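User: Could you go from structure to sequence for me? I need the amino acid at each position, not a summary. Structure tokens:
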């Protein structure tokens, strides 16, 4: 399927802002939860709603992973975990 349109984005925040502005529909990650609660976004096609947020960290070799890269990965994982817990009301 080929999709065409006026707006293309590669960040969740840009997609969220475009959907709120009425530029189309979006497959949003957890970042959109508050927007649904506030009525800025409405659920469509619930069978396609995202249930989780995926992320991959790619680096050349784990054997000599710099401490900064390891700290970055730990920080991102911790923040994502906290966001998910907060969004699900488990905190």
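Assistant: Here is the amino acid at each position, in order:
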């Amino acid at each position: 399927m080929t999709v065409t349109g006026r707006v293309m984005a590669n960040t969740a925040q840009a997609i969220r802002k475009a959907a709120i502005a009425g530029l189309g529909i979006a497959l949003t990650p957890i970042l959109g939860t508050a927007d649904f609660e506030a009525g800025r976004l409405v659920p469509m096609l619930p069978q396609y709603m995202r249930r989780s947020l995926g992320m991959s960290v790619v680096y050349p070799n784990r054997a000599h992973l710099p401490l900064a890269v390891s700290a970055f990965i730990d920080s991102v994982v911790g923040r994502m975990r906290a966001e998910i817990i907060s969004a699900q009301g488990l905190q």
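One structural detail worth keeping in mind: The chain has a mean pLDDT of 78.
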